[in-house]
Amino acid sequence: MAAGVTGVRAALALAWQQMGAARSLRALRLVNQADGFDCPSCAWPDPDKRHHAEFCENGAKAVAWEATQETVGESFFAQHSIENLRLQSGHWLESQGRLAEPMHRAVGGTHYRPISWVEAFSLVAQRLRELASPDDAVFYTSGRASNEAAFLYQLLARALGTNNLPDCSNMCHESSGVAMTQTIGIGKGTVSLADISDHADLVIIMGQNPGTNHPRMLTALESLKRRGGRVVAINPLPEAGLKRFKNPQRARGVIGNGTELTDLFLPIRVNGDLALLLELNRRLVQRGAVDVEFVDEYTEGLSAAKRHWQAVSADVVGDATGLSDEQIELFVDEVVGAERVIVCWAMGLTQHRNSVPTIREIINFLLLRGNFGVPGAGACPVRGHSNVQGDRTMGICERPGEEFLASLDMRFGISSPREPGFDVVETIEAMQAGRVRFFMALGGNFAAATPDTALTEEVLAKVDLAVHVATKLNRSHVVAGVESLILPSLGRSDRDDQASGRQFVTVEDSMSVVHRSTGGLKPPSDLVRSEPDIIASIGALACPDTQINWAEMASDYNVIRDHIEMVVPGFREFNDRVRESNGFVLPNPPRDDRDFPTESGFAQFTVNELQPLVVPSGHLLLQTMRSHDQFNTTVYGMDDRYRGVRGTREVVFVNPDDLDEMNFRDGERVDVVSVADDGERRMSGVVAVAYPTPRGCAAAYFPEANVLVPLQSTALESNTPTSKSVIVRLEAAPLIRAK
Ligand SMILES: Nc1nc2c(c(=O)[nH]1)N[C@H]1C(S)=C(S)[C@@H](COP(=O)(O)OP(=O)(O)OC[C@H]3O[C@@H](n4cnc5c(=O)[nH]c(N)nc54)[C@H](O)[C@@H]3O)O[C@H]1N2
Ligand SMILES: Nc1nc2c(c(=O)[nH]1)N[C@H]1C(S)=C(S)[C@@H](COP(=O)(O)OP(=O)(O)OC[C@H]3O[C@@H](n4cnc5c(=O)[nH]c(N)nc54)[C@H](O)[C@@H]3O)O[C@H]1N2
Ligand SMILES: [Mo]
């Protein structure tokens, strides 16, 4: 049976169960259509000509999960004490249904109790006014917030006087943004969907699992393959979408049955990518496969990089990558045989100590080959959350640029602070030091998504007031704050009616296309409010000294968009252009004009030192990743159909020879212990699964394994937690030890 059909069946079953037949049909008819809503799952772009069903299994699940007809409100919270809710799994909490009314937990309260919106807003405003300094407040954002909500949210923080705007991006593509800004002058990808499907000769997929996380990408890859294009995949795991390729959109997979998507698969060791890229670039220079004209006209720094490549040692590369000389030579052949190359990457590259150098080395490679500013070539960091890129464009960032702040100040007559704010890791450290008194989250699940779960939960609980704007109940809501509020918001799929009528919002996808999203379903209750409305209502009470007209923005989102047009570059005639059916593409100088807006105006070759991680003997390098049946901390089910695991997510995948050597059997329960300078962290009773990952490597699921990720272990320059490079050892689980 084709994976595609199983997948569609699984998604439809969930949709039916959550929404019923009529609502399911209506919801799924609207996903990713020009007049419908943007899929709340990943940030993969929509084609200009859309299919009737322009969504994947996971998109359908995400919609069903949001559009469920189950709700939680007063009676649910009366029945379940907070202590009781803390004992439940994240999956159970979210399964209870949509949050249907604002809830409040008073200081010392055992239960959440209903609160009116008016009281909730004035409580928030009062607590904000009482802060000794605006920097005692933190405003977290998850990447599902619309452009309009994100713009208002950062305006609120800055009008109050803080840049404490950590977001999920700090844990996601921050390393990509940092590396690309340094080298090509812009932190965004330089390719379009058509570049992959219609123009590229070769797509290299590094550290990304599209079959699970960006299934609609497979459609573009399928077009590439039909044209004779080639695919190289580099991954420590033989992921289903990459190896035994099946397009979930079709019953028969790519070009008939059984065809492999990947022409060359390199089973690299975890964190071996920088070594591989350095060696690739060394061999390209050796073979004379350099676009000399491009390099001369647009770049600087090649000679220093060349010297560095020449010094790369073959032994070190072999150890770090686990690949043979022959495998690497095949890779170089693929590259030399292709004129137009796109490199796609995601979390497999961004969550390591050396992530920024690794991504800079990808840019070195693309520069060597002149692969910028021509169709079918370029850099493609594949984004995660459906609007994470847009949120950054709207100014959700703890280190905003001066230009942005100056235009924000001019437009609204405020004086934004210039001091950088806290990112995610700095927020947790500040909480630890008792410096965060107020924590607000626009979506997301801070407690579960961040590293070092035990520590994070402990310090989150000490914040005076935690305010959660959310659609579904999650772990953060039951562990955060001495006092807390849950403010239920509309989701993507919900109708949004304000004083001026039906509203739409806008989002930006992974390829910088800005387009509309219009919810079409009946909201879960009359007491649920939109994110812009919630933020504006707080703003009106919390910033009385400004001239900002919050009410006008909340009642008509066109007004917010007019402000965005004046503050954010690239949004000329925003309200008109976004009404065109496919929206519009934001300017991207390297892609559009081979213009590299770096300080010198030239794209930068960089020298990236190889400092392989030292993994002590008897230890493994563990990566944490997603299964097919989850969206980040939202777990839909316990099975990972693609990796053949059923009924549990508490597993650790290990090479069978490593298991043997450590005297463990496939299926045995073990403790996974991570080791760091500040001590050990433990995950107990995990099932060891023999799995084809290279020797010395291991894998476990996010967010269950986050307890193992040390807070202090972050990437150089981007401060992203190293969730894909955790040093661990396995121990016999206590039950077995006792025998
Ligand atoms: N269904 C679904 N879709 C999603 C999400 C979801 O949870 N579920 N999450 C969304 C979000 S926010 C994001 S950021 C993206 C994430 O999309 P991905 O980055 O694809 O997500 P991960 O599961 O973290 O997978 C990382 C991949 O990198 C590989 N890898 C790990 N370490 C290394 C390494 O050192 N080198 C190399 N070359 N590969 C490595 C892993 O084996 C895995 O295949 O997906 C988005 N889409
Ligand atoms: N160990 C490890 N840790 C990781 C990662 C990893 O690979 N390994 N990946 C990291 C990455 S890439 C990311 S992006 C982060 C994700 O971190 P987050 O973005 O914080 O987490 P999510 O699980 O996406 O958030 C889910 C919650 O968002 C709320 N929500 C959903 N839709 C809406 C909406 O429309 N509005 C509002 N207000 N709320 C909504 C729901 O209440 C739901 O419970 O995790 C990071 N953490
Ligand atoms: Mo992400």
Describe this structure in words.
α25 links the parallel β13 and β14. The chain starts with a helix and ends with a helix. Mean pLDDT is 94; it is low at 251-258. It is of the alpha/beta class. A 6-stranded mixed sheet has the order 4-3-14-13-12-5. It binds ligand MGD (2 copies) and molybdenum atom. The site of molybdenum atom (MO) has 4 residues, from loops.
CATH fold assignment of the largest domain: Rossmann fold
CATH architecture of the largest domain: 3-Layer(aba) Sandwich
Radius of gyration: 25 Å
First and last CA, distance:
43 Å
Low-confidence stretches: 251-258
Total number of domains: 4
CATH first level of the largest domain? Alpha Beta
| Structural class by helix and strand composition | alpha/beta
Largest sheet: 6 strands, mixed
Mean of all residue-level pLDDT scores: 94
* Helical fraction: 25-40%
State the strand order across the main sheet. 4-3-14-13-12-5
- β-strand percent reads 15-25%
Describe the global form.
globular
Fill in the keyword field for this structure.
739 residues, alpha/beta, Rossmann fold, Dimethylsulfoxide Reductase, domain 2, 4 domains, 6-stranded mixed β-sheet, globular, binds ligand MGD, binds molybdenum atom
